[in-house]
Amino acid sequence: MHNSFNIFPIYLSFTRNMNTLKLSNFFIFFLIVLQSGTEIEGYNILCIFPSISYSHQKPMLAVSEALARKGHNVTAITLNPNKKLNLKNYRQVDANSLYEVWARLQSSVGFSLQQRMTAFEVVKGFVDSSEIMNRAMLYHPAIDGFARELESSNTTYDVVIYEALIYTSLLGMVLQNGKPLPPTIGLLTLSVFSDADWFMGNPFAESYIPTLNVPFNDQMTFYQRLYSLMVILYTWLQVTYKCRPIQEALMKERFGQNLPSIEEIERNRSMLFYLNDFTTGYLRPVQQNTIFVGPINVENQPVEPLPQDLQEWMDGAEEGVIYFSLGSNMKGTSFPAEKRAAFIDAFSRLDKFRVLWKWEDDRLPDQPSNTLIRKWLPQNSILAHPKTKLFISQMGHQSSQEAINFAIPMLGIPIYGDQLQNALKFEKDGISIHMDIEDVDFNANVYNNIQRLLTNITYKQSMLRLQRLSRDKPMSAADTAVWWVEYVARHKGAPHLRPTVLDLPWYQVYLIDIILFVLAVLAVIILSLFMLLKMLCRCRTKADKKVKVN
Fold first, then answer.
1. Diameter of the chain by CA atoms?
2. Which helix (H) or strand (E) segment is 447 a member of?
3. Where would I find the H helices in 71-118?
4. CA-CA distances (angstroms) from residue 299 to 323, 397, 419?
5. Which of 42, 72, 312, 470 has the fewest Cβ atoms nearer than 10 Å?
6. CA-CA distances (angstroms) from residue 140 to 78, 83, 106, 198, 324?
């Protein structure tokens, strides 16, 4: 249930003292009152963000924080609570210790973000780890305690927002004691995820848009389209017949057997938010229940000041600063030694530049004198610094959004998942160069590519163009997200945006029955003409025989 308050008493209090204020101030206040309306609604919103990745957490939390600042009562289950945000209407359930699950995943199922994997291996890794991840999340002390609190209370939610990957089992907490499923909104920090698209009724566009994790751009060859389709079918089989049954069994084990299926919960999702736009993904057709919010984690976000030592160090760079980070998941220390040596050699030769390197150790072997290492660096603030000239990145989605926001050209070293696909797109856009870590010429090309990005002005110009396009929109990403969440709450899940295609069997969706019918009709016509021709030939043969006899 939502609560509301009336602004009219504030207006009365104001008018009692208006003789002490300037008349112009009064009219400004009056216009604000008229614009705001007489009533402001505060919805009860639950955000379930259990993803074991800071790069996923950051943009999703930006959504929940924007809702809280708007006055809604928000509860966020997260691994990265914002301790600086002090709002009485914003509760954070801290599940930070789930990061320890990654170590168990690597040892038990061999799932690691520190190595190159094929698209099939990525899908298999996620599916194989789904039982460990879901069980760890469902029985985590903070999450389990919150779920028990919901079970014993009459708390209901106007909207539930969750990451639409493989964590749907956590929605069982709002279905306990026979409670109906509230309107749900799925969030994705990825460019495209076909499994989530299916349950929104979005058109199949993978004939010209590469699916997630395949290393192609939007100009695919026949083989690449075939490979992409095989990945889609493999994903569907793995998720449908393995991942969802695992989630469903765990959900019913924890919250009771009288719950809907995981597929039913996902099929009744009210809306899907992609936390990106066309600058980091390809244009694709979608239904009106799918919203491209934009880079909410960087757009109009305040830039935190740098620590004084970093500020002074960057200010003192003669030609500029090169920033080297492989993101929050990939560790710099996992970089192969021979590849690392190529960067050390290149940085040593760029003595007029200074280098900031995210390195998860106290010592970097053969560290150049112009290089500063830190186990963690304030990336947003570094990219915002006017001396930053180049970002050497793994090409993750959020890092790329931040680079575009500050118009910093990139050298891409893609390692995992969708990173190579992102790198190919950005190279096509003219804002980066990417290097394959397994390339035999990797060492020889590092210095040349860095020099090319630093000296060729077209990369910076392309970045500035993409930055302008990203910022040129009628609403900010935060306002877009808040407006659509409120829309779903106002319209009780917005069922009028649910496309009919979700109720049709697959053969009707793709017109297979029509195509088969047309083919059958054509076959009958062709067969009839053949039979007619054959009959005419027989008649002609008989006639010729009679003529010969006579």
1. 128
2. helix 442-455
3. 101-109
4. 21, 14, 22
5. 312
6. 12, 20, 19, 30, 35
Q: How far is CA 165 from the centre of its chain?
A: 10
**Mean pLDDT on 30-47:** 61
What per-residue confidence (pLDDT) applies to 249?
A: 96
Cβ-based neighbours of 512, under 8 Å, separated by 6 or more: 506
CA–CA separation, 383 and 430 (whole Å): 19
Residue 406 has pLDDT above 90, yes or no: yes
As beta bridge partners, residue 412 has 393, 434
Residue that is written with structure tokens 């110009």 in the block = 461
Nearest to 211 by CA among 201, 196, 199, 200: 196
Amino acid at 292: F
Alpha-carbon distances, residue 513 vs 252, 461, 499, 505, 536 (angstroms) = 38, 51, 20, 10, 34
The distance from CA 120 to its chain's CA centroid, rounded to whole angstroms, is 19
Cα distance between residue 255 and residue 175, in whole Å: 8
| Under 8 Å between Cβ of 273 and 293 | yes
User: Which pLDDT belongs to residue 107?
Assistant: 62
For residue range 208-259, list pLDDT tens digits in order.
888 888 888 888 999 999 998 999 999 999 999 999 999 999 999 999 999 9
Tokens describing residue 261:
């299926």
- Between these two residues, 4 and 391, which has the higher pLDDT value? 391
For residue 92, the model assigns a pLDDT of 95
Q: What is the pTM of this model?
A: 0.85
Give me the mean pLDDT over the 120-131 stretch: 86
Q: Which two tokens stand for residue 510?
A: 């793709």
- Six-digit token string for 166: 């493989």
DSSP single-letter state for residue 207: T
Q: Is the per-residue pLDDT at 82 higher than 70?
A: yes
Rounded to an integer, what distance in angstroms lies between the CA atom of residue 152 and that of residue 51? 26
